[in-house]
Amino acid sequence: MIKRTLIICLMAVVAVTSVAQSSKKVKDLQKQRKEALQSIAKTDKELKTTKKSALQSLHQLNKLTAEITKHKEVITALNAEISNINKQERKINETISRLEKDLNAKKEAYAKAIRGIAGRNSGYETLMFVFSSNSLNQSYRRIRYLREYSAWRKKEAIKISEQQAELEKKKAELAKTRAEKNAVLGKRTDAANKLKQKEKSQKEVVADLKKKEKELQKELNAQRKQAAALNRRIEQLIAEEARRAAEEARRAAEAAKKAANADKKSGKNASASAGEVRKSQTKGGYAMTKDELELSNSFSQNKGRLPMPLSGKYMIVGHFGQQQHQELKYVQVNSSGIDIQTTPGTTARSVFNGVVTRVFVMPGYNSSVIIRHGNYLTIYSNLSEVFVKAGDKVTTRQSIGRIYSDPEENNRTVLHFQLWKETTKLNPEPWLNK
């Protein structure tokens, strides 16, 4: 009986031990699984952060490159200003040298004349000089000489005083010019220091991006697809407008022809066209009315004078056409417009009078607005809010929408702006008054 009891107890102990071991193993496995899931989640988060960071770094690099260009332009302008100040300084120094030489000569001549007649300063000596004349005529000449000498002395004293004042004025001008020069030199030093800081930051970003080449390429490929989709949509909308305008022109021509035939049969004079005449400047191009043609010509004549398509501070961080990145040889961008970075809350505005033809949404570009100016079109993309609708007439500098600020990129605010003539994309920069 005791033996049986011992066996049962032993089996119980073994069972408990087995359960405990099994429970511990389960806990260990659960812990491993939890750690594995956390590791996966962490890795996934890091990958997403790396991808986002790669694109952010490129945006930061583009902004730094634009800022460096601006700093170099500032330094070039300051160097030109310093050069002009140096020229002014040399001219003023030459004038001061000439004035000092001339003034010293006048002072010396004046002093010599005074010394020559020093003994005749008293009234008695002057009278004796006149009365000691051998004749009346000589007395008259001596009186006239004394008068002329007195007048000359006063005149010379005035000239010397005026020249002294002019010299002091030039010296003050020189001091002011030198102060201006020192101020400009200080600005140049400050600009040069900022340029060095920006170039240092640029190198750091470039080094970081070289480690993230694959991630960046993937992001850029996605952006290229979005840009291509935007261009296809714009081309589609332009083609639709051209077909609609051509159809209106055809109907107007048919109506005018029918009205003319009816008038001919009735013996009346040909009546006016039943519709507004539309004509295109190119085959298959947009058929314009007379007013649209005038608007198109006016737009063309304002090349280089169009206002920026946004209000407030800005910086062009993306340029038109195919661009090989200066620092990253593997990065090539082919843009149909320009990217203008600004501050959060900034609104986009029309660059010229026109008519809103389309408002649409595209992935990666948020809302876009197309404004027609005759056979020219301007496109404003990446708007978070739109203030206009299709059919609205807009005027130059009229706000048309608020530019989107990306919260995942520190509220990075960029307007994508395009300019087309018919179906041809144009570089907007030469058209804008920057």
SS-based class: alpha+beta
Radius of gyration: 44 Å
| Tally of individual domains | 2
What order do the helices and strands follow? HHHHHEEEEEEEEEEEEE
Tell me the CATH topology of the largest domain: Glucose Permease (Domain IIA)
Largest sheet: 11 strands, antiparallel
Stretches with pLDDT under 50, minimum 5 residues: 1-23, 32-52
CATH class of the largest domain: Mainly Beta
CATH superfamily of the largest domain: Glucose Permease (Domain IIA)
Question: What is the number of helical segments per DSSP (H or I, 4+ residues)?
Answer: 5
**CATH architecture heading of the largest domain:** Distorted Sandwich
Q: Note the beta-strand portion.
A: 15-25%
End-to-end Cα distance, whole Å, is 106 Å
Q: What form results from the Cα inertia axes?
A: elongated
Helicity range of the residues?
Answer: 55-70%
Q: What's the count of strands?
A: 13
Mean pLDDT: 77
